[in-house]
Amino acid sequence: MPITKRRNATPTSPKRSNRKKSTTTMNKKNNGKEFHGLVLTSAQLLEYPDLVAVDGYLYDLKGFAKVHPGGGQIRAAGAYDATALYHSMHPFSDPSKSKLFQKYKVGVHIPSEDDPKYNFNSAFAQDLKKTIRDAMGKDSWYAPFGFMLRTFYIIAAVLFFEYMWITTGNIWYGAALGFYHAQIGLCIQHDGSHGAISKNSIVNSSFAWLVDWIGASRWIWMEQHVLWHHPHTNHQLLDPDAQSAEPAIVFKDYTKEIPSSSNNNGKEKKETVTPLVAAQEWITHFILAMYGPSVVYNFKYLYTMRHNDYVPETVASGDFMAKQRPITMAWRLFYLFRTVFLPYYIAGANIFASLFIVNFVVGICLTWVFVLSHNFEGSDRDPLKLAEGENNTSAGYGSKTNDNNNDANDICWYKMQVETSSSYGGNVAMFATGGLNFQIEHHVFPRLSSWHYPRVSGAVKKCCERHGVKYNYFPYIWDNTLSTLRYMRKVGVLAVMQHAREEF
Fold this sequence. Notes:
This protein is an alpha/beta fold and 504 residues long. The protein has helices at residues 42-45, 61-65, 83-89, 99-102, 123-136, 145-168, 171-193, 201-208, 210-213, 218-229, 284-289, 291-296, 300-304, 319-347, 351-374, 392-395, 413-419, 427-433, 439-444, 453-466, 477-503; strands at 38-41, 51-54, 57-60, 80-81, 105-110, 118-119, 260-262, 268-270, 411-412, 423-424, 473-474. The two termini are 38 Å apart.
């Protein structure tokens, strides 16, 4: 039940905040020591970076992180409602039945009326979980030997091309290095960040840190991708990817209106678009390629430890994230030293090529894979919107009644994940994209190693057919690409037309 209006609340630093006792508290102490009997709303939770909410309860995140089997990186989820995150990462666990988890319960979380109400135990969810368990049998969900073999091949290729780029300054070696840096992002760090490589948290963390090797940031990636994108896929207010490229290009379907949003100072701002958006299908790929340089040279977000305003300031202002800032800065300087300074100084590489070639190619490779996954004909930019009337079970994501006696507005989280994602190709594409061509399988079970996606995809598709859930599959990447371009043309034209109507 994440915070729909989180950006409208003026975030303040927990250390500087003058909190009023508008909630019921007992034995409250600052900095996450004791919060017994604490009651917080979604907006108030933003001021507690050492607390996390799951299923309507508050937990001492700082204390739990010390004994968490998956490692202390969960502290990145401070001041956050991690209900959807928890259930997606632990699909077969009930936090209320975990003695270890309950040991750190410190209060009650009161979600707002606008917070989405996800259902993780619908009939479809139960069948899908059973389907995956049956498909995997007794085999481990974590990375097998084949995954590790590919990993060491990619790392070896990265080291080779970095050496050649630094010593020769040849632009083609720089481009090849960018390609293999992208392979680290797609095939290695992605699984590590999701905890899908090993049961050992140190192993997962080691591979997750490789995202800093390629010029990004582990913690900022976790905030944007793991904490916000995955739980709320394609939601135009909750998913940071929905507006990540505006105003240059748009992904949202502005069929009715251009919504307003706010910056993180609580001030409303109107969404805007450029005239080029009407023909954005021709320039989308080139603009997205600049994602690489924009990440590498944006030191502001390293200071704030946020990718954009979608991550509330207070979520990134706790002690844990503050300690990561100098480490993140050091990694970034090390990246620039290897890929920009050394090729220019040692090999005499063209300065423009030194500044852009590696991260430009990384941007081309990464962004296109991710754009295809959730932007195609029929993709829903408002997956939480329920249809009205008797047909809301088939047309929406919730149901008026169900076997779990949940609220009529409950949204089947698994159905939402399936119908807002697409898959394409098979084993060859899996090897090249780190399994991200099987985006549906990845989104419903993010802790399943990407190596296993081809193995379970057929079973997932049949399960969807049994429950009338739309499984978006394209035989080839070109089919998905053409569908994406048609979608981009549609939403671009609609955005320009609607913006013109708003102006007049």
